[in-house]
Amino acid sequence: MKLYDHPASGHAHRARAMLSLLGLECEFVIVDLQAGAHKTPEYLNLNPLGQVPTLVDGDVVLRDSTAILTYLALRYDPARTWLPDDPGLAGHVQEWLTTSVKEVFEGPCGARISKFFGAPVDFDQAVDKTHILMKTLFEPHLAENDWLVGTAPTIADVANYGYIAATGETGISLADYPNVRAWLARIEALAGFPKIKSVTEVMGSAA
Ligand SMILES: N[C@@H](CCC(=O)N[C@@H](CS)C(=O)NCC(=O)O)C(=O)O
Q1: Which of 46, 111, 128, 175 is the most exposed place for a label (fewest CB within 10 A)?
Q2: The domain containing residue 115 runs over which residues?
Q3: CA of 164 to the centre of ligand 1 (A)
Q4: Distance from Cα 160 to the centre of ligand 1, integer Å
């Protein structure tokens, strides 16, 4: 199995975290985003959108982080704890995966890529969206539940963790959301879970 990866990518972190939680062997190929390696014909052949992560496992090539989580859970977690069979729980997992690619992408991820990577995203709006998301969805849900779905961690937790955990370096305080902070700590305590690294830790002063 090969993961086309970048250490500063919160999307790639999802795939890396799941591979580690499941104890899977994988070759990690760092795609040099700064040098444009994700837009070369060879890479676009694998991932026409020119993004990381991309997972290649035999004939299966996946160009999306939450699709990679679903695939790894279905293929390599026979106990089906990370993606439960129960239709209601599976529906809730999908609900939170969608939250990770819409509201989390527009909020905490948007603030991060605006601040560190010059993405054309309104930073203040992304910060506002993050607080609305924490207040209306994550904090109330996590006040009543240890995990996003059911009573054990699932791929929903893995998908939503990274950009929320990285808010500190973006300048977004989670001080008003104690249950969100406790949930992040629970995820980081899972055996094999790699904590997300800060952009400056990964890229130094270039970030
Ligand atoms: N839907 C994709 C989005 C991945 C994504 O946005 N990756 C960023 C890095 S965090 C990227 O490769 N950006 C480069 C580009 O879009 O040109 C996923 O969930 O994997």
Answers
A1: 175
A2: 87-188
A3: 17
A4: 15
